[in-house]
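One record is set out below.
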Amino acid sequence: MKIDLNADVAEGCGQDDKLLTIVSSANVCCGLHAGSYSEMLATLQLAKKHKVRVGAHPGLDDRENFGRIHQPLEEADYRALLSYQLGATKALCDLVGVPLAYVKPHGALYNQAAVDEDLSDILVSEIKRFDPNLKVMGLSGGHLVKAAKAHGLEAISEVFADRNYEKDGSLVSRSKDNALIKDTDEAVNHVLQMITEGTVTSICGAKVPVDAQSICLHGDGEHAILFAQNIKEQLERKGIIISP
């Protein structure tokens, strides 16, 4: 069995050098919700060095809230927001000499696309216009994954190592105290259940089906390195290969 392990990087959190020795895919911040062109460049160079697959991680233009507060925009603005960030990331990938393999929206843009069919269609159609060979990474069971498949793009179904789930398969809002998993053993067991059983236990105790093709760790999390190391170690002990 193989599983992808991804992390959000180039967001100025100071953990990228270690994370990129562990993960198999890097969601590179595109410079709007956080980070900068210099952090993008450094991260892409590390990804190339460690042979880590590169994806664009575009978010809302909202540094104050780290791109995690929903902004209702017009369709043209969503398309411009996405195209602007993909173009910048692709240019830096070309400069470094690494391929851009996929797109994974960030924060509020990601969560809204998971539940909003119209928005997911806008984002996927813009990704396809930009490069029809790009894959789309989205929340397992969400509209973004469905839209990618509908548009003929390869979808990567994602689950989260450090986030709790609601009974409808959505992530628990960060406004709630129990949104994040902070215990290492809990995170490892959480991941193993999703991979081996194809389910996640929601905060109300119900088991929810998930398709775990890629596991995400938030690079800004205080436990990111510890979680990544332990998850990789436990997966490899069970003969599960970390691979994009």
In short: The chain has a mean pLDDT of 95. Residues 75-96 form the longest helix (22 residues). The helical segments are 16-19, 37-49, 75-96, 107-115, 117-130, 143-150, 184-196, 224-237.
